[in-house]
Design a protein that fits this description.
Length: 169
Amino acid sequence: RPTAAEIMSRPARFVSPGDTVARAMSLCQRHRQSGIQVGDPTLLAGVVSREDLDKAIAHGLENPPVKAAMGPGHVTCTADTPLPIVQRLLITAPAGRVPVLDDGRVVGVVSRVDVLRALGEPAEPAEPPHELVADLLLRVPSLATVFEAVQAVSEPFEGVYLVGGAVRD
């Protein structure tokens, strides 16, 4: 029997409780996820579903903190939890996602798609992971000071962008 560690998706992605609903939705869309963990790998505050984020945005609540859109409670399992138990946990999981813990640290997430894949059911074809240009740029040491300056200047503003080259419109 497979365990949670064998079927989980990695990495577990997080937003902080103070991040906006819009940022959480953006990350869900970018990574094609049905929800996202709130907190960090060592301190899980909860899980917010994409459905809850959609409802908040539909009511014009893009800017409040994601903790306001997060449902009550969350369900977790350990890395060695067998598949049948993970299936039962998914039924009660508020966001349809079960974070997987190993020594108190979130190491992955089991979603319904992961369970279907483990059971041999056809799931949507997975796209190969694409490395984002932003992630590549963050690894360029000479740009670190530029990014720090942009971050310092952008704090009081929403939607500040660093653009290289020519910009139209």
